Amino acid sequence: MNFSPKSICYWCVIAPPRDCPSDIILLVDGSGSIGSDNFAKVKSFLSKLVGRMDIDSGNTRVGLVTFSSNVGSGFNLSAYSTVASVQAAISSLSYFGGNTNTAAALAYVRTRMLTSAAGDRSNVPNVVVVLTDGNSNNQSTTRVSEHTDIHKRTCCLCFLVFLLI
């Protein structure tokens, strides 16, 4: 399948206000159903998205992790402090294919990325954006509810963006 210009919500490329600090984790599906061409388009979209964020001032921090059968490559919230460096890191991401193990990716975000050691700031809201084209391979372990640890410990907002491919 191919992306059309309308497949990715370009209207979503609206950044938080400049006086609203946030720690944003981008969780990017790199499974086999995405395909390498579409993965490149997702990287382009993410580059445009972070280009609209207030990263250079330090108000917004961005972390990213790819996932498929396993958690893949990415970077922590403290890794980059400029829009250009985040965009370069996004550009260098590799596509691997595989299954869609969203549960493992969410667990990784919760236990490894939303920590002070990885750059998470306790006084700033956390936002996790999951970009995927479909169902997790293990739906029961993927569910995020008000009773799960991710909400209690991190005061996290979770968004799911479906890629229509």
SSE diagram, text form:
Blueprint: E1 22-29, H1 36-51, E2 60-67, E3 71-75, H2 83-91, H3 102-113, E4 126-132, H4 139-142, H5 149-154, E5 156-162
- The N- and C-terminal alpha carbons lie at a distance of 5 Å
Q: Report low-confidence residues grouped into runs of 5 or more.
A: 1-16, 145-156
Mean pLDDT: 80
Share of helical residues = 25-40%
Task: Identify the strand order in the major beta sheet.
Answer: 3-2-1-4-5
Strands, count: 5
The SSE order reads EHEEHHEHHE
Gross morphology is globular
- The CATH topology label is Rossmann fold
- Classified in CATH, the superfamily is von Willebrand factor, type A domain
Just give the CATH class: Alpha Beta
* CATH architecture heading: 3-Layer(aba) Sandwich
What number of domains?
1
> How many DSSP helices?
5
Sheet with the most strands, sense and barrel status:
5 strands, mixed
Q: Give the structural class.
A: alpha/beta
Report the portion of residues in β strands.
Answer: 15-25%
Rg on CA atoms, Å: 15 Å
What's the short version?
The N terminus is likely disordered. The chain starts with 21 loop residues before the first strand and ends with a strand. Helix content is 28%, strand content 21%.
